[in-house]
Amino acid sequence: MSKYKDQTTVPEPDAGRRSFLKASGAAAVAPMVLTSRKSQAADPPFPPPSPPTTPWQEELPNQVTPLEPRPSLNPMPKRGANINRGECRRAPHQRWMQFFGSKVLPQDRADLYELRAKEVSDWVFHPDYPPQSAWGLEGTTANGRELNPPIFARYGRPIVLRLYNQLPQDHRGFGAPEVSLHLHNGHLASESDGFPGDYFSVSKAGPTLASPGMFKDHLWPNVYAGLDEYGGIGDPREALGTLWYHDHTLDFTAANAARGLAGFYLLYDDLDSGDEHDPNPEALHLPSHPYDYPLMFGDHRFDPDGIHSYDQLSPEGTFGDKVHVNGKIEPVLRVARRKYRLRLLNCGPTRLYDFSLVTPDDALQNFWYIANDGNLLPQRLTRRRIPLAMAERADIIVDFSRYPLGTELYLVNRLVQIGTRKPSGFKWPGDRVLKIIVDRNTPDIDVSQVPLALRPLPPLDPEEIANAPVRTWVFDRRNGMWTVNKALFNVGVPAARITRGSTEIWELVNASGGWVHPVHIHMEEGRILNKYVKGIEVPVPPHEQGRKDVFTCGPNMSMRVLIRFRDFTGKYVMHCHNLAHEDHAMMIRFDVET
Asked: The domain containing residue 135 runs over which residues?
């Protein structure tokens, strides 16, 4: 029973932004497939399947190339917005003076980065499809200008990232040319979190942003949670590892992210140092760059001409029947005979996966599972499968030294899913989405390790759990739209007000048997205390027993999650990361206050 009595409903939202969806965005969407809103049980209509493709025609690079820092930014970032120099009117950065001691950023106190949201006209998803328009976040790497380059960061070294919005304001097709950049699972102040209502362009500002602009500066401090109670840069047991950045524009997150506004953010510290040659004996010495390789999986649908399409009006979204890997369909990755750390991310918008690694004759292969949602587990797990809902991450280590040169392996998805609602079962051998070829030896000896013990968890306090207030959040559907506690998202009104430093238990409830809701909570991670299916408690799988930011509520499932709200204040959101559900109002705002 909830100890909060005001959580049954929240106020109705301002319909202005969604009116824009219907009035102006609709004209540009193709193909247009509207779903019946008369019955939540009705099956949605489906667009025709994507044209067939010949597999294994393109290769991924042998290594990823990170975004390069800039020596300076002009104007230099400061605590308040550089309004007179073209920055949108954001709120002042929290804890800025604590981190830097000056209102204007001093030299050499942070790493400076720049990304530009842009449209390209010649993106190739597959050689069987024509070059076409795509969006991306462009930055400078050692290879030149690239879209969505990974960012390598380190705890204790802040980052200020300047985002320019150069998307065409008169664009055609799905999406909206505004941006609000979210660092997914970042422990951040509200003004740098990518709140959906903080979107901007040169001519538009979201309902929670004071004025538009050409750019916005984000302070990503790279501190652990627990600054106030633990001291220093926080509690190292709270370290994050595999994060990702993506657009979070109100009502258009699915469309904008699907168009390509997403990339990786890898965060290291003294334990997970990103250096297998680290002289520090306390470091884990996990496989490191260039053998630390991020892989992003997303579902797309293509029209009969091979053009990427998405129906942003339908509450069902558009189910993708083609899976891209880092923006390429059915690519090849060539690897060396040694250990690799593969970081798997489901970037959505609507498909769930259950991955396995197999040989050409479909023999399952073992690997080590070391991190869930980017967080190192207390101990490595030996596994043969990787369930991955939207926005979930899984870090695995594969020892390719076990295989002779020329060996071919495949990453296969074994889940059967024909629409955006939920999977319908498993199949064997599964759909091959990535081909891996072991094609070379390394010039150096592989010194990387895979220790049994990884990162310890902060202990749970039974007294704290017993005294924690409980909020219940029910994820459901009403009148064809997605709701939380029977209400649509209201960007301007918090559904909960929470005191900074407090601890709560959030009950996440999916009362329906018809959908899966991967629930993402911004600002802080949680620990699953209990999980129930049809009211009966079920075990929490080992890979979900650590810290998480995405909680996958399957049909008729509920769970109790312990969350602590620390270090920052402001407006944040919780939402379903089936992005069609999020854009059609399955989201709540919560404010952390002093």
From this structure: 83-268
